[in-house]
Design a protein that fits this description.
The chain has about 375 residues and is of the alpha/beta class. Helices cover about 45% and strands about 15% of the residues. The chain contains 16 helices and 11 strands. The chain has helices at about 15-25, 40-50, 65-70, 80-90, 105-115, 125-140, 150-160, 185-190, 195, 205-215, 215-230, 265-275, 310-315, 320-335, 345-355, 365-385; strands at about 5-10, 30-35, 55-60, 75-80, 95-100, 120, 145-150, 170-175, 235-240, 245-250, 255-260. The strands form 2 sheets. It has a 7-stranded parallel beta sheet with strand order 4-3-2-1-5-6-7, with helices on both faces. Strands 9-8-10-11 form a 4-stranded mixed beta sheet, covered by helices on one side. Strand 1 (about 5-10), helix 1 (about 15-25) and strand 2 (about 30-35) form a beta-alpha-beta unit. It binds magnesium ion. Magnesium ion binds next to helix 7.
Length: about 375
């Protein structure tokens, strides 16, 4: 069997470790060429001992000697820093990269990988949020492809198999509603970090869990869907589905709606992306619909969760606006996690940052880098002025 060699960036996070589960289940099918992590060096060393990549990269340069001392005796190359990671994306010992890092830092390695013709199993949603237009342009002249790992986009992709894209009426992205779905606007004033980190259905990293609580995650997924499936924002909607069994839907021109269902488990969309949209046997728990008394759907409350509407603003204005929203959100979420601002301030910080940052049309990569830096500075200034 043809063996696919992969790079996993963000290997110690939630998506990264689940990706390596699938590699372990299919040793004849997948090999690991590169493992890269942010700062969890001990976990990276353990993963490297097990999966024997050619190269292990740690973004946090202060952890480099630990990594090198542990792995070089085993004949595994090591490197540190974001520049080394970006350069590694141009190596020719792998064909697919799973981009499982969180945030803006996923952008540069993804762009480098596309430039060198790699296939992308995309879990880093910020890449398409920040640079959807640029990446779409790059893909049109590259042999690289993107397969979504995000469960909603994987669901939509699966619903579109065998369909004529011209017959798609709208995309319906499901949202769990997060931990605060049933709280009143008044109650949201004083929710704590611990409350916000209690996601009802999915076990994820802190940043995406807070994004789920504000529904910014769903806004990002609407933007991501616009670029992945080339459907305008006004034909993409979010619906709250607290059980997280229907992973998303597509409505067609004849009124038919297709959905993909399953237990909330990221192994499924990761497996589908790694298998090039062909189905592989899974040992995971199956869905038993009779275990669920009901599957419910409701309109999202955009008064309570104003971040959701930022998706449509981002798509209407285009240019660098989504980049500004992402940068301000990353800074605001970090400040919330550190206890420096309140939950509802996250939206305020983003809105104020947008008001103080100009948008540029059709940005180049350098424009995005510059906008990201400026927006982060503005967002930090706004946070400081709140306190
Ligand atoms: Mg998702």
């Amino acid at each position: 069997m043809y063996k696919k060699n992969i790079a996993v960036i963000g290997s110690t996070g939630s998506i990264g470790t689940q990706t390596l589960d699938i590699v372990s289940e299919n040793p004849d099918r997948f090999g690991v060429s590169i493992l890269a992590a942010g700062s969890r060096v001990d976990e990276l060393i353990e993963q490297a001992k097990k999966h024997r990549p050619n190269l292990a990269v740690i973004a946090d340069e202060s952890k480099y000697s630990t990594l090198r001392n542990a792995l070089e005796p085993l004949g595994i190359e090591t490197a540190a820093g974001s520049k080394a990671l970006a350069e590694a994306m141009e190596r020719d010992d792998f064909s697919t990269v799973v981009t499982a890092t969180v945030g803006y830092s996923g952008l540069e390695p993804t762009i480098r990988a596309i430039r060198s013709g790699k296939d992308i199993a995309l879990a880093n949603k910020e890449t398409l949020v920040v640079a959807g237009e640029l990446i779409t342009r790059m893909l049109s002249t590259s042999t690289a492809t993107i397969l979504p790992v995000d469960s909603e986009h994987s669901a939509i992709y699966q619903c579109l198999v065998g369909e004529d894209p011209a017959t798609v009426d709208r995309l319906i992205i499901t949202a769990s509603g997060g931990p605060f779905r049933t709280r009143s606007a008044q109650e949201l004033l004083n929710v704590t970090v611990a409350d916000a980190l209690k996601h009802p259905n999915w076990n994820m990293g802190n940043k995406i869990t807070i994004d789920s609580a504000t529904m910014m995650n769903k806004a990002f997924e609407i933007i991501e869907a616009r670029w992945l499936f080339n459907i305008p924002g006004n034909r993409i909607e979010a619906v709250v589905h607290p059980q997280s069994i229907v992973h998303s839907m597509v409505q067609f021109c004849d009124g038919a709606v297709k959905a993909q269902l399953g237990v909330p488990d990221m192994h499924l969309p990761i497996r589908y992306a790694l298998g090039d949209a062909r189905r592989m046997e899974s040992p995971e728990r199956r869905l038993t619909l009779s275990d669920y008394a009901s599957l419910t759907f409701e309109k999202p409350d955009v008064e309570k969760f104003p971040c959701l509407n930022l998706a449509y603003r981002a798509l209407d204005e285009g240019g660098t606006t989504p980049c500004v929203i992402n940068a301000a959100n990353e800074i605001a979420v970090a400040a919330f996690l550190e206890g420096r601002i309140k939950f509802l301030d996250i939206y305020k910080v983003i809105e104020s940052t947008l008001a103080r940052t100009e948008s540029t049309k059709h940005p180049s990569y350098d424009d995005l880098v510059q906008t990201n830096t400026i927006a982060r500075t503005r967002a930090n200034e706004i946070i400081n002025s709140l306190n």
